[in-house]
Specification:
By secondary structure, the chain is an all-alpha fold. Helix content is about 70%, strand content about 0%. A hairpin with a 6-residue loop joins strand 1 and strand 2 (about 355-360).
């Protein structure tokens, strides 16, 4: 049987035509998808610039569907989820990136860094600690150590916090000496609660020798010495604070006055406090301490008058009126109660970072978790 080759004359052109049509279809599809991804991406960027996070997230989700291998889109989407507080979805996005075997090492570190902050923002401190620990030794090493330092502080693991602060001291992120001093003071406080006062004393004495600019260290050292009955040593610590940290003298004015009276030497406190008052703006605490050092109440009230001449103060006026009869006993009680109530909010301390107010002076703000954010002056004096 003879083989008829005539059909090849029809089959070859037909196959060529079908192949050409298939290639054109694929090319058009590729171009269409290529146009859709940038449009979705730029639409999301536009929403983001207009602070429309929900619309931006929808646009980026669409872009990721068309190009699931685009790492930048995943990072943008994960960042938006985190900013909106949708931490579960942010974690899933960044974990999806880490699961990709073809992700370059640099992008993998970036994804690990983003995932660690997802956990931190979500309050999952144990998972955040593990994620940041995995970044040690990478290009995110310093950022990871600072984040770990914050985690240790929030969990009140002061030993590890102090160790991390010591390692960060040589970094390019500034000095961590004062922050380290706070960690050591917290450790000393814990030792005192455990009855290990001698160890706390040794720790604080070493601390003030290495970080003399830490006001808290001197205050803590003075308190430990006073609890042990070493009033002379306690007064010496307060006097050292006045030398190294003069801005914090109002915090120790009352203790300095009381302890000086207990050792029978009011002049020991009067001289440094009077010298401080002459060189600085009026301080309610210093004025009140100077008044308590006077043997005569009338002479003590003069300090409040001097304060009022330099700076109008409702609290100082209330203290001055403490020795003045205001009428009958019932009337006097009403007036004094009203004055004290009006002046009470003015006696508080206010965080300079977040505005959190408290009657107690905090070295570590309960509101913003910042160290040394409280000025050592009352609200009325700010």
């Amino acid at each position: 049987m003879a083989f008829d080759l005539s059909w090849l004359l029809w089959a070859l052109p037909l196959a060529f035509a079908l192949g050409w049509l298939a290639s054109r279809f694929d090319l058009r599809q590729w171009r269409l998808e290529g146009r859709q991804v940038p449009r979705a991406y730029f639409r999301g960027l536009n929403h983001l610039l207009n602070e429309q996070q929900d619309q931006a997230i929808d646009a980026f989700i669409e872009a990721v569907r068309h190009d699931p291998d685009a790492a930048e889109l995943h990072f943008a989407l994960g960042g938006l989820f985190r900013r909106r507080g949708d931490y579960d979805r942010a974690v899933r996005v960044h974990e999806h990136l880490l699961a990709r075997a073809d992700l370059p090492a640099r992008e993998r570190e970036r994804a690990q860094h983003a995932l660690a902050f997802d956990f931190l923002k979500a309050g999952l401190l144990d998972r955040a600690e593990a994620a940041f620990t995995a970044l040690l030794g990478t290009r995110y090493d310093t950022d990871a150590r600072i984040a770990l330092l914050g985690i240790y502080e929030r969990s009140r693991d002061w030993a590890r916090a102090a160790e991390m602060a010591e390692r960060l001291e040589g970094s390019d992120r500034g000095s961590f000496r004062l922050r380290l001093a706070h960690h050591r003071c917290e450790q000393a406080a814990a030792l005192r609660q455990q009855g290990r006062t001698a160890e706390a004393l040794a720790l604080l004495e070493s601390l003030v020798a290495h970080v003399p600019e830490s006001a808290r260290a001197w205050v803590a050292l003075a308190e430990v010495r006073e609890s042990l009955g070493e009033l002379e040593g306690a007064l010496a610590a307060l006097e050292a604070l006045a030398t190294h940290c003069p801005a914090h003298v109002p915090l120790i004015a009352h203790s300095l006055a009381q302890w000086s009276l207990r050792v029978g030497s009011a002049e020991r406190a009067r001289q440094p406090l009077a010298a401080w008052a002459a060189q600085h703006e009026p301080s309610l605490d210093v004025t009140q301490a100077l008044a308590t050092l006077e043997p005569d109440a009338q002479r003590g009230r003069r300090h409040y008058l001097e304060h009022l001449r330099a700076e109008p103060s409702l609290v100082a006026a209330t203290l001055w009126l403490a020795g003045v009869p205001l009428g009958s006993a019932d009337e006097e009680a009403l007036v004094r109660r009203a004055l004290e109530r009006a002046g009470e909010p003015l006696k508080r301390y206010r965080c300079a970072a977040c505005g959190f107010e408290s009657r107690q002076y905090f070295w570590h703000c309960p509101g913003c978790q910042g160290w040394d954010t409280y000025p050592p002056r009352r609200v009325e004096e700010l």
